[in-house]
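cache lookup: miss for this entity combination. No prior model stored, computing from scratch. Input as submitted by user K.M.:
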Amino acid sequence: VTVGAGAVLEGVHRHVEAAGLELAVDLAARGTATIGGMIATNAGGTRVLRHGSMRAQVLGVEAVLGDGSIVSHLGGLLKDNTGYDLAGLLCGSEGTLGIVTRARLRLVPSLPERVVVLVGTADLDAAIACFVAARDGAPSLEAAEVVFADGIDLVCAHLGLAAPFPAPQPVALLLECRGRTDPTAELLDALSPVADRIGATAVADSAARGRELWRYREAHTEAINAVGIPHKLDVTLPLREMASFRVRVRDAVASVAPHARTYLFGHLGDGNIHVNVVAPRRGAAVPDVVDGVVLELVAAAGGSISAEHGIGTAKRSYLRLARSDAEIAAFRRVKAAMDPSGILNPNVLFPQ
Amino acid sequence: VTVGAGAVLEGVHRHVEAAGLELAVDLAARGTATIGGMIATNAGGTRVLRHGSMRAQVLGVEAVLGDGSIVSHLGGLLKDNTGYDLAGLLCGSEGTLGIVTRARLRLVPSLPERVVVLVGTADLDAAIACFVAARDGAPSLEAAEVVFADGIDLVCAHLGLAAPFPAPQPVALLLECRGRTDPTAELLDALSPVADRIGATAVADSAARGRELWRYREAHTEAINAVGIPHKLDVTLPLREMASFRVRVRDAVASVAPHARTYLFGHLGDGNIHVNVVAPRRGAAVPDVVDGVVLELVAAAGGSISAEHGIGTAKRSYLRLARSDAEIAAFRRVKAAMDPSGILNPNVLFPQ
């Protein structure tokens, strides 16, 4: 499909579903996220595990570069190696190289059968073991999201929902599989070798129940925003580092902001964790030093300081945690090549 | 996995299979193709349909840029938006921007069950209808390759193989599905709505038979090379244009090289057709004008003049068929940014 950069994700979903197709990127902010913004940040979301991020969907763009020239490559071919991948370069460039005006996006067939399962576990390592079993045993796996008891409590209080499990579980892993035929048996079979790691299981027996289970995950942002204005740090961690990171990040935040609460949730399937640090009392701000404390832990663990939100202004002073001087110098040369006057989004990405 | 650029694809396949994993790009030249060359050309091959091309597998590279600086980003995270995608930019740049020395590649779980089906049809439109039915009905579809009777005859004569079907079929579509469980029923069910378009079906009942069916496709290059030195043109076409292109390309080649034979085969799943024009008599060369005749037809049909081999030296004078002056100017600025002295592979890609 060819869409304007201002098209909102939810509208694109509706537009293409009539043809039995889907855009394979989806995210909780689908009602406000524009295609142009999703390209600028190389948006990820809940289906990256199976389909890749926005860059993997963008077959070509029309864009205005910094010198005013217009490039356009909207043929939509799956294999096309005629010069440099300008579309891929613009994707994730945060508006610093060009202004994307239209995009040609890959679509995938809509798979009619789905199952959503919420698995409760005693700890994060057990949730990771369940995810790995699902990933390796169920090719139909589309999403693997993780939330924790404190976040679930917040969501339940905010929305007036019942708890998802009869007995509380410290960690909850949401798994969604989709297929041409019902993928329930494939997913449950894949989980059977790790049955002893599972404390509780909720299997959605209807589409409505599936949406309810997703609410425990997707309402996190809204529920946390209701507490206060959070510092949001979108990071990726290697799976093997995730459990120890969770302990260390809480300790580190407590050392600089003892009054703050730290909520973690995110896309376990690709290691993408949203760290939300929020002060629960009005007027009790979270000090900015928290950002550096968290991002240094991420970098030390071999993670990425930006998973799917980009560097923007908030993280530009931390880019050197993630990239070498040689890389940043190469970025600057590419920036100068595409935007010689430096007029495009000049205050993001690069360290001051 | 992190591999050196000189690693050969087949060796990488063997190395990772011990972990139950696979590199998702595969191609007939697996015994000689190096990872560095596959990155330089953004190689495609037989599994792009399901897994994307080389760029989709490359999570990061180590490379020496034209100014001697070394960039390295080998952390291997699935979501990582910290600056420009240098790895994706180097991928498909044909050695003009940097020399890739190492790469971090995404792997996928090895799916143990597979089925290979060769479908014979009366014409290309029927083969396309079968492919579309398989693509939309069988999420386990990995490969959809097309060959024609003249190419099959050549392969059979060259290798001493029996014909694949009891009665000759003008077109043959090779479909491969892979899954955790046997995907045979899923594929055959997906094909049932187009049963009236199918003239013959060969279903591999063993892995050995599956490899035999693949030989009809993969031995095309070897069998054609045995006839003479072919002009090889690797192109992509929109599916809706493919049948008429096949007629037009044979007519057009006949008009400039009446003694030549034109063999088509390739990756139907992503529209990637290999056009091979060869003179069957020793000393009867195919005139170079054939290249332009074929590529102009491709461009007029909305196709790509290079699917998975890049522009190289052979197609540099045709780049303007595929890219606008503004795009080529942007390419030149990127080239100057990464290789200011113009020392890296200076004779490829750009028009003279």
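stored under new cache key. Chain A has 14 helices and 13 strands.
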